Amino acid sequence: MLSPYLVLSFFAPLVLGKTTAPNLQLHEALDNVPAGFMLSGPAAPDTVLNIQLALVQNNVSGLVDELYSVSDPSSANYGQYLSKEEVEALVAPSLDSVTAVNSWLSLNGLNATIASPAGDWLAVQVPVSKANEILSANYSVFTHVSTGLRTVRTLAYSIPTDLVGHLDLVRPTVSFPDPYGSTHPVAFSRPVSDIDLSNTTSSCANLSSVTPACIQSLYKIPSTAATSNSNRLAVTGYVGEWANEADLQASRRSCTMFLERYRPDMNSSTMFMLETVDNGSNNQTLAYAGGEANLDIQYTLGLATGVPTTFISVGGNWSTDGFLGSLLDTANYLLSQDSPPQVVSTSYGLDEKLVSPKFANTLCNAYAQLGARGVSMLFAPGDAGVAGFDHTECTTFQPTFPSTCPYVTSVGGTVGIPETAASLSAGGFSNIFPRPSYQSTAVPAYLSGLGSTDSGLYNASGRGFPDVAAYAVYYDVFIAGELIAVNGTSAATPVWASVVTLLNDRLMAAGKPVLGFLNPWLYAGGASALTDIVSGNNRACANDTGFDAAVGWDPITGLGTPDFSLLQSAVGL
Fold first, then answer.
1. Quick one: pLDDT band at residue 203, thresholds 50, 70, 90?
2. Signal peptide location in the record (predicted)?
3. Domain range for residue 148?
4. Among residues 206, 213, 204, which one has the least CA distance to residue 262?
C-alpha cells in the first residue's frame, strides 16, 4: 500500500518549471564495451524501450538498521519482523523526488506508471530517439561474439542536475544482459545409462548417484512431514525453465517418476503450486522440461517434506529487458504480497561485472526489504570456480551477483565423503559491496592465512561469498522422462532452502519467529552447527589460480555444510 502523500502526488498538478532544456550531468558510464560484446551500430530511432526509473529511496540506512535489528540474535528485536507497510515507509521516495521526476517526464511528454509497491520504481515506454535526447545517451546495438545475442544498451547517460538526489538510476542503460541467458543452471554429468538404477533408498553408499535419501542421511534432515500450513517455500524459474509435473509425479505419466521412486513414503498427491511474473508460464510439454527447474522442484519437494512449495515462473525477454529486470520484477512481486514465502531459492545469477553498481545496490536493497519482513533469500553463486559464470576467460577473479549482495545467503558446493570443496563452486569477493559487519571476524581470518597469494586478482575488502555450502554433484533428476545426473551449486541451494524451511516449521510449531535473513545468525553462532570444510579449491583462473578451502570461513564453502540436528539445537529447539 502506498503512503497517502505518494498516491496523491501522482494526481496532483505537476510543477512543470522551465520549458528550456535542463542542464545534464553524467550519471553512469562504462569505460569500455563489456568483454565479449562488440558494437554493431546505432539503435533504430523508433525502437521502443521499456524504461524503468529508480527514485532515491527515503531511508535506506534506516532499512538496513532495522534489518540487522531483527536478524541479529543478540538484538532485543530479534525476530520482530517489519510489516509490509513499515518497510514501504522506509523506502518510499520523498514527495519532492516524486514531483521532480514526474515533472521532468511531463515536460518531455511522457507519463510514467508506478512499478513497485513502495513507489520507488517508475516505468515508461520511450523511443530510442527520445531516450537519447533526454538522457544525452547513445543507445546502440551490441552483439555478443560467441552467442550472437543482440541487445540495445548505452555506454553512458546523464540526468538533469536538478534530479540529482531524486533520481537514482535509469535502466536499461549500462548494465548488460548475460550473453548465455543467465541460466548456467546445471551441468549434465553423465548419460542415464550410467546411473545405478538400484540406488533408490540407500544413503550415500554410491556417490555417483545422489538421491534425497543420501542428502537426508548426510545432513541428518528428517523425513517427517512439516506441520505448519503457513510455512511456505518458493523456487524461482527464469528464461523458459519450466518445472514438469510428469517428471515429478508418476500419476501424471505412466512411468515411475521422481517422488514415487525416491520418496514413496510421501503423500502421493504432492505437487507444487504455480505463480507467474511478467507473463510467465509453465509449459508442460515433456520435451520442454527444464533441467534447472526440475532439479530445484524435485529436491525441495523431496527434502522439505510436506512444506507447501511454489514455483514462481518469471517471463519477460532476457535479451531485451535482461535477467536483471526479471530479478527486480520478482523482488517487487514478492514485496507486493502481504505474506511472502518465508524462504526463496534461486539457482541463477550472472557475473557482477555486467551489473552497474547503482543497480546492484538498488536490487540488493529490495532483498534487504524482504529480509526485514522475515524472508530468507538464498542464491547459487555459479559453477566456474573463481571464473564466476563465464568459463571463457579469467584473468582476474570474477565475483557473481546476486550472491555478492550482503543481504542474501549464498550457497557454495562440496563433493565426496568426507566432503571437500567442489572445484566448480564459485566464490570470492565483491567489487561492488564492501565487507559486511557480520563478516568482520571470519573473512579477515581467512585473508590472514592467504597472505599475498593471488594479490591483485580480487578485492580483499569486498563482501566475501559464499556463506554456506552443500553437496553439489551427481544429483539424480528426472528431465523429460529420463533420469539424468547433474552438477552445480544450483543443486546445493535448494538443499539449504529445504533445511531452513524445515527449521522454520519447527520454530513456528514452538511459537517462535522464523529465521529470516540468515547471515547475522550464521556468522554469530550458527556456524557451530555446521561442518567446516577444510580441503579442496576453486582454481579456475589463469596459471591455476583461485582459492583454497581452510579452517573456518573460506570463499568456496563459506562456513560449511548443514547438520540439521545441530542447527535445531542452535535455534533453541
1. low
2. 1-17
3. 4-57+92-171
4. 213
